[in-house]
Write a structure and sequence with these properties.
It contains seven helices and seven strands; from the N terminus they run E-H-E-H-E-H-E-H-E-E-H-H-H-E. By secondary structure, the chain is α/β, with parallel strands linked by helices. Helix 1 runs parallel beside helix 2, helix 1 runs antiparallel to helix 5 and helix 2 runs antiparallel to helix 5. The longest helix has 19 residues. Bound molecules: zinc ion (ZN). Zinc ion binds next to strand 1.
Length: 238
């Protein structure tokens, strides 16, 4: 395929990437592009009643695999521990090595402001890994350097301070499948802390209303990289 894209969604916990950009990812997967959900932790500490952290970790990794399959992507869950994520050299090197191995072009991750420290670290880890993967002076398992083309932030109820969307993606055709994928997660359907399913169904509807689609998911340009190249006035191309 010409212009084949590999979209990688980097989330702090299994479920974050899917809720934030699962419908967008599915749209690209359906069109024949490659999609990877990379979960830096399983998000295993929000355990259901009568379940151990170890058991819930296994369940979340399994739920992530089921959701990714429905959306047309692959799921990778790293070893890091929920609520203990660090933007340190070891974590950045691990993600950079994955960038060199899997060669994503576009990465979508959390917004920079979040009430959850793991979420707020994700864009820092992605930026550090992007640089490390791209610089030939870093030896990562002997793999050749690889640079991303673009990074975007996406929308998560825990990361809303200062999040103003730049791009509204029409996901009207993908929304039912998106909700089906979300339903694979116990916490999305059953959490007593937050009504995840209702929120994201309503969010897709509301973002669709303002962008004149049935359903939409949004992206935000990376801070400091807000150069929007066009050949003419957008919408009035010559
Ligand atoms: Zn999370």
């Amino acid at each position: 395929m010409a212009n084949k894209v590999h979209v990688m969604i980097v989330g702090a916990h299994c479920g974050d990437g899917e809720i934030q950009a699962g419908a967008i990812a599915h749209k690209y997967a359906k069109a024949g592009h490659e999609v990877t959900f990379l979960h830096l932790t399983a998000g295993e500490k929000g355990t259901p009643p009568q379940m151990s952290v170890e058991e819930y970790r296994k369940q979340k990794v399994d739920e992530a695999e089921q959701a990714a399959k429905i959306l047309g992507g692959r799921s990778i869950t790293l070893k890091y521990k929920d609520a203990e994520l660090k933007a340190d050299d070891e974590t950045i090197s691990t993600v950079a090595t994955l960038f060199r191995k899997l060669k994503p072009n576009v990465v979508i991750t959390h917004w920079i402001n979040s009430m959850h420290p793991d979420h707020a670290l994700c864009p820092k880890i992605v930026e550090g890994a992007w640089l490390k993967a791209a610089l030939p002076g870093f030896d990562l398992e002997g793999l050749p350097p690889h640079s991303l083309n673009r990074m975007f932030h996406s929308e998560n109820w825990e990361d809303m301070e200062g999040y103003e969307p730049d791009v509204f993606v029409d996901v009207s055709e993908e929304f039912d499948t998106y909700l089906k994928a979300l339903s694979k997660y116990w916490f999305i359907k059953n959490s007593s802390d937050f009504r995840y399913y209702d929120y994201y169904q309503a969010l897709g509807t509301m973002r669709g209303c303002v962008s004149k689609h049935t359903y939409a998911q949004t992206l935000k340009f990376a801070t400091g990289m807000n150069v929007r190249k066009e050949t003419a006035i957008p919408g009035f191309e010559l």
